[in-house]
Design goal:
disordered N terminus, binds 6-O-phosphono-beta-D-fructofuranose, alpha/beta, about 550 residues
């Protein structure tokens, strides 16, 4: 493995970018568009049905060249190969990172710790196919011989967000039955709201937990089991109603899940990268295995593009470098994801985990604290709704917030009046963010409206938009399983490239541990009514207030 430059900020490529930033900080994008009438053609990329227009960014050809120098300096192409070759790039957990193997469609092999993982991957895909076909066709039945009408996925984080996002996104591809529901939160209201609609005789649970130790998932799984057994003749009925997806197969068996009903996954798949594995079983049940495999195929195509396209034509690399430009040189701390596609309404939440759990790190691969910013805060909502909520801040607030807009050419069903309004809004927002509205333009507008000069002067500062606010536009034909696969893989690889440049491990998540440990200490303290004094005064105060106030 190559050694990273000890201090990224003093490296030649970084310093060149820093110097260039000085030239760029106050240059407006309007000028770029005036100078280059073909800026759109020059700064857009197409891969299959996905167009990336990145011309509305505060970049010139020189910026892009310097950013690519940074990628070369960080050895991005070699890191891509390391990932695909199964090197232990998740260094703190000494694991390969092979979610790309899960969607590999060729005949090649993928090795983790010297073993080809593809035979097992194919075996589990076949098991998913057999099972999902059996449930969907009605061959798999509940203990009363009734058909399964509802499936409940119990899992949290990566064992929930991907399947939720994808099943929502691909609604037009779902069968009427089984209906798929999701329970993630330990808040009992979620599971009881789901269960009240269902009949235990026709419900199937999928317990999804890579570790099979996640307490939230185990509690929900217990509640589900009790719910089934309440009206069942005996525990043997569980074999018809509960399956599990896990890397901890023995724990699932101990828990009482029929070994036949356990779908394995592997430690070389991170939870937030796992929807391509049997973690996606709820997706397969919902859209069918052929559609699930189309999604894998789309992701595979993006993998091949990522692996083979030169940096200047590479979509994930381009998105990653633009992100670095804003985070590290413009000091942007946030990134908005704005799908103009209602079916992608859970994409921002999904990407929050993918990006923030991956790149929310402050120690580099050599164990040293970093002295530069890493992963930004990801947030977002579907396009038009966001416009009527938080876009004010993106247009006129003090922070600079780069945005990704994600727009379909067609939606299902396409009702032109609706769809034109949606698309027009997306394009208009990006134009407004870029152009803004200067004083002269505001004055002209107010004058045309007949406003007296004195009033104009008062209102003018509020009506000015500085513009020069960056956006990427991702436009795709329609949200098919393959396109969605490509889109998700695009973001996964973007996140990876940024982690490589920041010299951090994007594949561990030690930061989630401390809160879990402390919750385990607090939990037994809630059992009685004794006063607690073992924490700081705020935590003691809250625990004691809770104990005193509860019924
Ligand atoms: O607490 C965070 C986390 O470990 C995520 O990384 C993971 O996706 C989630 O919890 C669920 O973990 P598991 O699949 O092991 O239940």
């Amino acid at each position: 493995m190559t050694t990273q430059t000890p201090n990224l900020q003093h490296s030649p490529a970084w310093r060149a970018l820093q110097e260039h930033y000085g030239e760029m900080a106050n240059v407006g994008m309007r000028e770029f568009f005036a100078e280059d009438k073909q800026r759109f053609e020059h700064l857009s990329l197409q891969f299959k049905d996905i167009l990336l227009d990145y011309s509305k960014n505060r970049v010139t050809a020189k910026t892009l060249e310097l950013l690519r120098d940074l990628a070369e300096q960080a050895d991005v192409p070699a890191w891509i190969e390391r990932m695909f070759n199964g090197a232990s790039i998740n260094s703190t957990e000494q694991r390969s990172v092979l979610h790309v193997a899960l969607r590999h469609r060729g005949s090649g092999s993928f090795e983790a710790e010297g073993n080809d993982v593809m035979p097992e991957v194919r075996e589990v895909l076949q098991k998913m196919r057999d099972f999902s076909d059996a449930v969907r066709s009605g061959e798999w039945r509940g203990y009363t011989d009734d058909r399964i009408t509802d499936v409940v996925n119990i899992g949290i984080g990566g064992s929930d967000l991907g399947p939720v996002m994808v099943t929502q996104a691909l609604r037009p591809f779902t069968a009427e039955q089984p209906r798929v529901h999701f329970v993630s939160n330990v808040d009992e209201s979620q599971i009881s709201d789901v269960l009240t609609q269902l009949d235990p005789r026709t419900t199937l649970f999928i317990i999804v937990s890579k570790s099979f130790t996640t307490p939230e998932t185990r509690i929900n799984a217990n509640t589900a089991r009790e719910w089934i057994l309440r009206s069942a003749p005996g525990a043997e009925v569980l074999a018809n109603h509960v399956v599990a997806v896990t890397n901890n197969v023995s724990a699932a068996r101990e828990y009482g899940i029929d070994p036949q009903n356990v779908f394995p996954m592997w430690d070389w798949v991170g939870g937030r990268y796992s929807l391509w594995s049997a973690v996606g079983l709820s997706i397969a049940l919902s859209i069918g295995m052929d559609n699930f495999e189309s999604m894998l195929h789309g992701a595979y195509e993006m993998d091949e593009h990522f692996r083979s396209a030169p940096l200047h034509e590479n979509l994930p690399v381009t998105l990653a470098l633009l992100g670095i430009w804003y985070v590290n040189f413009f000091s942007c701390q946030t990134q908005a994801v704005l799908p103009y596609d209602q079916r992608l309404h859970r994409l921002p939440a999904y990407l929050q985990q993918a990006d923030m759990e991956s790149n929310g790190k402050s120690v580099d691969r050599q164990g040293r604290p970093v002295d530069y910013a890493t992963g930004p805060v990801i947030f977002g909502e579907p396009g038009i709704n966001g416009q009527h909520a938080f876009y004010q801040l993106i247009h006129q607030g003090t922070p600079l917030i780069p945005v990704d807009m994600i727009v379909p050419i067609e939606s299902f069903p396409t009702v032109p009046q609706h769809h034109h309004m949606l698309v027009a809004s997306a394009f208009a927002q990006a134009e407004a963010l870029m152009r803004g509205k200067n004083e002269a333009e505001v004055r002209e507008e107010l004058e045309a409206a007949g406003m007296p000069e004195e009033d104009q002067a008062k209102l003018l500062p509020y009506k000015v938009f500085n513009g020069n606010r960056p956006s990427n536009m991702l436009v795709y034909k329609a949200l098919t399983p393959a396109t969605l696969g490509r889109l998700i893989a695009l973001y996964e690889h973007k996140i990876f490239v940024q982690g490589v440049i920041w010299n951090i491990n994007s594949f561990d998540q030690w930061g989630v541990e401390l809160g879990k440990q402390l919750a385990n200490q607090i939990l037994p303290e809630l059992d009685d009514n004794k006063k607690v004094t073992s924490h700081d005064s705020s935590t003691n105060g809250l625990i004691n207030y809770y104990k005193k106030s509860r019924k």
